[in-house]
Write a structure and sequence with these properties.
- It contains five helices and twelve strands.
- The structure holds biotin.
């Protein structure tokens, strides 16, 4: 029997505002670690930086996992990273597809975004919680509307149609393995593996943290999972995920977000 922690309790919903919002309500009602909430459609899907996550019914995996980590909040920067790795690995277990990671938590195929992750956290009755919300584009043939980042889907990248349930099963396994090893070993192994799956490092990026955008070179990640950059005047800076977005300086490679 395969060992599984996350996703054993599965609450499958039809249309909902946001699985992350619903996960928070269920947490208050007593849902515990490992519960996953999925929906076939969200009417108010949320993305990072107060953006929206738009979907059409049954074309994506829309899932929120409830976590109750033992590690202290200084290590929680590892969660978006391990979730990104788990998504990448789960997709690649279904079909061969070339994917890479963009800090802090986007999964890309070339210059296009195939999956996004929204990690929210807090305390409830003195106990810490994290909700890892994951949206993966699976079966879209086209996307309508305006996107800050050009989107893509598994179908467009590989020709393979995928039942969201199939990806959920694969993802619950990859996420369980990574989360369990993070609980005992912390961020070190995750940070190292994440960097191997990213194309960002050594490249110029235009960083937007609310003030004027500025060009820096992405150098690496800190043990906490923050981004290390070097500015044009040679200063090294640590960037935290909160309010930052960036675009690559080379427009042909642009995959900002
Ligand atoms: C991003 O790329 O900005 C993060 C997008 C996260 C979207 C997922 S879909 C399931 C879960 N529920 C939400 O409302 N958002 C996340």
């Amino acid at each position: 029997m395969e060992w599984l922690l996350l996703g054993v309790q599965h609450i499958a919903l039809d249309t909902i505002d946001s699985t992350n919002a619903r996960a928070r309500e269920l947490l208050r009602d007593g849902a515990g670690e490992g519960t996953v909430i999925t929906a076939s459609h969200q009417t108010a899907g949320r993305g990072r930086l107060d953006r929206r996550w738009i979907d059409k019914p049954n074309q994506s995996l829309l899932a929120s996992y409830i976590l109750e980590p033992m590690r202290s909040p200084e290590d929680w920067g590892g969660i978006p990273l391990l979730a990104g790795l788990a998504v990448l690995q789960a997709l690649q277990s279904i079909t061969p597809v070339n994917l890479h990671l963009k800090w802090p938590n986007d999964v890309l195929a070339g210059t296009r975004k195939i999956a996004g992750i929204l990690v929210e956290s807090g305390m409830l009755s003195g106990r810490p919680w994290i909700i890892a919300g994951i949206g993966v584009n699976l079966n879209q043939r086209e996307f309508e509307g305006e996107y800050r980042l050009p989107p893509t889907s598994l179908l467009l990248e590989s020709g393979r149609w995928c039942d969201p349930e199939e990806l959920l099963t694969a993802l619950s396994k990859t996420l369980s393995l990574r989360y369990t090893s993070w609980q005992t070993e912390g961020n070190g192994p995750i940070v190292e593996e994440w960097m191997r799956h990213s194309l960002m490092f050594g490249r110029s990026i235009s960083l937007d943290d609310g003030d004027a955008a500025r060009v820096v070179v992405a150098e690496g990640l800190t043990p906490e999972g923050a981004l290390l950059v070097r500015s044009v005047d040679g200063r090294e800076e640590t960037i935290y995920a909160g309010d930052v977005s960036f675009t690559y300086e080379d427009p042909a490679e642009n995959a900002g977000g």
